Amino acid sequence: MAQLETTSSQIAQWVARDEAVLSPSYTRSYPFVMDQGKGSEVWDVEGRRYIDLNAGIAVCSTGHSHPDVVRAIQQQAERFLHMSGTDFYYPLEIQVAERLCSLVPGNEPHQAFLCNSGAEAIEAAFKLARYTTGRPRMVAFIGAFHGRTMGALSLTASKAVQREGFAPLVPGVSHVPYAYCYRCAHHLEYPACDLACVSYIEQTLFKNYCPPREVAAIFVEPIQGEGGYVVPPAGFHQRLKELADRYGILYVDDEIQTGIGRTGKMFAIEHWGVVPDIVTVAKGIASGLPLGAAVARKSLMTWKPGAHGNTFGGNPLACAAAVETLRLVEDEYMAHAAAMGEVFMERLRGMQRRYEQIGDVRGLGLMVGIEMVRDAAGRQPAPELRDAVVQAAFERGLLLLGCGASTIRLCPALNIPRALVDESLKILEESLAAVLKA
Ligand SMILES: Cc1ncc(COP(=O)(O)O)c(C=O)c1O
Fold first, then answer.
1. Which residues of the chain have pLDDT under 70?
2. What predicted TM-score, i.e. pTM, was given to this entire model?
């Protein structure tokens, strides 16, 4: 990402103080120092206003400080802040689990394990998959991001820097190419490829070095997030699920970024009609409060009391926020996300026709990726161009972030108003035009 360029003294001071005491492993793209936010607009400590197309990386699903969510948190804060859901009972934790269990695809009874983050939800799914199948191995995808704790990191294969220096990771994880059709690892074209990325797992991975009867689970993002907002084609998830079922392998659907209405359905996997065995959620479920979950069929939740737990999971404030978030998303915002996603896609495809440096525009609902390339024919990734556009947009009052090698990701709040969609697209195009002109 572009160098931080600080111009104003207050901002520069905060950035300097941050650099003195916060871990240098964070990946800040530009010096936005937040003061407050409302919906899809945010203001920095010097009062400058920005449109936020990032929503805390797909977290603030109902926008910043939605009044209903804030009210629910305040009301709960006056009753109690914490009680450890691992050891005691309270209605909010049960209500959130009930909602999640009824929302995940599949008709069988489900149960939920609540935690505080995406990585923790993945750890829970990883451990549960091993525990319940008695099998040691996992399959995951190149480009996948499942988090940064040791188990989750072992499944992650997005950027080498995320793994460098941390080996040995958890053994037994094999990575295979994802259905990234714009850059097919097999150099084939969809649909003539007949989903070679799925057959590769059976014909190469399972035959040559990863005995399928030792595989507990396949971890898959329905749409790759951090890896580049990569939407797989029709049939991919269905074929993958059939393969998993043939060998008694669990299908772990990582909905941490895609879930809770973001793609226009409660869970993105519903676009492919697949019923997963375990679903992981976090990010958007509580509008910004830390909450994660691994939800599985009851028949898979075979672990004994004490086998897994935590102190803070299912925190009452986070659960209060989640109940309101789920209500708002289900009633209204999920449909709005689908509609606004279409506006973004149509306008960005128009922009793609005007600028050959926009190699690919892809997405579902409000999860939209714009892959920047040097030129349309060569398709070489253009990370420096992507970073320059992100920087130029910041300077014009628009917050964007990158993902993958050279993609700009748009993941705004699900209730972003149409006027802000239009305004943000205008700034985005101006930024791209300015960078190309320079
Ligand atoms: C698909 C996916 N899984 C897991 C994670 C890890 O979540 P967390 O950062 O809350 O640990 C992320 C975070 O970006 C994600 O996008």
1. 1-7
2. 0.97
